[in-house]
Structures are given as structure tokens and as C-alpha cells.
Amino acid sequence: MNEIRIDETKLGEAMEIIEKAASLMAERDCGQDQGASEELAGLQQDLRELSGNKRLRITDFQRYWSYTSLETIARKALMAPPSKSNVTNEEIKEIVLGILKHSEAEMDWWLEYLKINTGLVNLSDYIFYPNLVGLNLQATLEQIADKIIADRK
């Protein structure tokens, strides 16, 4: 099973890059302003190199403050993207039972990991809105895990 690893020494630099990019996108039209567009591309490249994630898009952080903190979004940027693996039913159960104990960034990572490895595009509904997937709204994490295992593709 995958593990989440973050190089804490890079957190400050990631936060700085994201904040600069978000401010740039808020203050200037990066689609029309060639200088702003080039500066944004440079910040994207810096963040990609720092994180090792060549698929990272700096525009994903444009309005991060409307839904999360700078530290949380920087931690997400430094996490390697989850990948497909041969996750077992027992591993799924272990992840689901422990999912609420994680930070916001880690929880999002595990939700994406489960989504990729179960084929359930509405995976977060199972955890946060179990009534939308045929369970009682007060379903236990054990019941939710069993439902994810039963419904996996």
C-alpha cells in the first residue's frame, strides 16, 4: 500500500510559490498579459521541480483560500499523486477506518487513492454522504468500508 511522504523542508518554499502564483492570478490577467503568463509558467515550473510532480498545474491553486489554507494546499502539492495498485479488501477497510484521523491534505490524498483503486468516482460520497450510496446517514466506517468493497469495480 502507498504511503504519503512530504519533505517538510520544502513546505515553506512551496507555500511561497503558491502564494506568489495566486496573487499574480488575482492581480493580473495571465491569459492576456504575456509577462504575467511567463511569470506564472516560471512559478509552475518551480513548483513542479520542487515537488517532483510534472503534472502539477499552478492554476489549480488560483483561489485556494476560498476552500483551504495555504499550508494545506502546499502539503497537497508536495505529495506524490496516488497511483493504481493492487489494493486488497483488508487495505481498503484499514484506510476507511482510519481516514478521519488524517489531516485535510492527507485525507484528500487517501480519498483520491481509494477512488483510483476502486473505480468509484463518487468515493467521497461513501464517507461523507453515505445516504447517497444506499446506506444510512449514520452508517459506521465499518459499514462504509464494506459498501465500498461491495461496489468496487
Layout of helices and strands, plus pairs?
Blueprint: H1 11-27, H2 34-51, H3 70-78, H4 89-98, H5 104-118, H6 123-128, H7 141-151
Helix pairs in contact: 1-2, 1-3, 3-5, 4-7
Brief descriptors of the model:
about 150 residues, 7 helices, about 55% helix
Structure commentary:
- The chain is 56% helix and 0% strand.
- Helix 3 crosses helix 5.
- The model has no long low-confidence stretch (mean pLDDT 95).
- The chain is mainly alpha-helical and 153 residues long.
- The chain starts with 10 loop residues before the first helix and ends with a helix.
- It contains seven helices and no strands.
- The chain is elongated, with a radius of gyration of 18 Å.
Question: Quick gist of this model?
Answer:
By secondary structure, the protein is an all-alpha fold.
